[in-house]
Amino acid sequence: MLSARIFASRALAKLVALFGRGMVITVAAILLATLAIGLAIVAFVNSSAPTVITITSGPAGSVFERYAERYKKILAREGVTLKILPSAGSIENFNRLNDPKVSVDVGFVLGGEANNADIGELFSLGSISYQPLMVFYRGAPKNLLSDFKGKRLDIGMVGSGTRSLALALLKANGIAPDDGTVLVDSVAGDTVQSLLENRIDALFVMGDSTSTDLMRSLLHTPDIQLFNFTQADAYARKIVYLNKLDLPKGSLDFGKNIPAEDISLIAPTVELVARKTLHPALSDVLLEAAREVHGSPGLFKKRGEFPAPIEHEFAISPDASRFYTSGKSFLYRNFPFWVASLIARTLAVVVPLTLLLIPALKVAPAIYKWRIQFRISRWYKVLLELERDALKPSPDPKRHEELLHHLAEIESTVNTITIPASFGDLFYDLRVHIDFVRASLLARHEHESRDIPS
């Protein structure tokens, strides 16, 4: 410890001898200011990726809940804890994300849910799946949704994306609850039985949350039909967040040819929506999880089709766009999550400090040199004024002695200036010029003395 202090003292003494105490103080001040700025960056820009995030999912047993549970396991491998907050469905998910008072980071939202609301603080990480709307009904085949006017319809739970989409479609077909159409609220889990027991005439469900076995079972039942959206192309063009999908003939049961014909469906996409405050690294791990969960082929999608940067109401986040273009960022691609987070945090402090420190240290010598030159050059101004005074005629015989005395005071003050060795030439030039002015004053005095008659 003592040897370290001795070394530091000697190093400081050498710096002072080389540059002067002022230069050392200037550099030290720059370093301290840079350190303060670095601490401010750490305090106000939290670059460290959080290890706990919250997702708003969906009702118990829903496909959204199953998605969230799979995400949770995948994120756990990266050391990130995913908290799952159940909801009534897509609408509640959107409302939570759009409410800054609710502590959520990301959620599943169906296309069309924003409904012209202010979504300035939300981004989409991309679409993760189609959610085809399926309408199972009893009776003779129907060609138009308007044929369901006056029927008993189960359009899903309040707050669900199914209900929201169904209401929009019914309204577009001139159907409203007060025109004789009955909107039935079935008990959860009892909707299919309600249709089989003729307590309702039609059941609206999202296909991705309806198992293939359930669809096959319903279509095996006599008098149960799956509505064919013959106007699917028109729906997809007029309602921008909808897509046309095809359920091919025989795709549910080759042997019994179910369905017996190609059926057109309409479907919004499910988007993974996040707040703009979501850390880029968490955006990456969420999209990696989405690829693992949604990348496999299915009845309504091809392998690798999702996740995809399909943009509707929500703009795709810049971090998600970068992910779709080039994958995870370099650090999070090559290091474990916690290591990459630590490196990113360090770089977030070091890089700004370096960018500030390099130009500051380059400018510091120039500023210091200017200060030293100013301290010396201002005495030249005093010498010039003294010489001008000497040139002025004066009847006072003591005027010469006063000027020499003033010059001696200037010399005495100049000799007290502390100048580093690197600026010694400027200091000695000043002293030479002081002697020159003194010699000039003495020569002038001697000349004037000879001219005075005795």
What does this structure look like?
The chain is of the alpha/beta class and 454 residues long. The chain has a domain at 2-33 and 347-451. It contains 14 helices and eleven strands. The protein has helices at 2-19, 21-44, 63-77, 90-97, 161-172, 191-196, 212-220, 232-238, 280-294, 318-326, 330-334, 337-391, 399-415, 424-451; strands spanning 52-56, 81-85, 106-110, 122-130, 133-138, 152-154, 182-183, 202-206, 224-226, 242-247, 263-275. The strands form two sheets. Strands 1, 2, 3, 4, 10 and 11 form a six-stranded mixed β-sheet that branches. Strands 7-6-8-5-9 form a five-stranded mixed β-sheet. α3 (63-77) links the parallel β1 and β2 (81-85). α12 runs antiparallel to α13 (399-415) and α13 packs antiparallel against α14 (424-451). The longest helix is centred in the last third of the chain and has 55 residues, at 337-391. It is rod-shaped, with a radius of gyration of 41 Å.
Write the SSE topology.
Layout: H1 2-19, H2 21-44, E1 52-56, H3 63-77, E2 81-85, H4 90-97, E3 106-110, E4 122-130, E5 133-138, E6 152-154, H5 161-172, E7 182-183, H6 191-196, E8 202-206, H7 212-220, E9 224-226, H8 232-238, E10 242-247, E11 263-275, H9 280-294, H10 318-326, H11 330-334, H12 337-391, H13 399-415, H14 424-451
Parallel strand pairs: 1-2, 1-3, 6-7, 6-8
Antiparallel strand pairs: 3-11, 4-11, 5-8, 5-9, 10-11
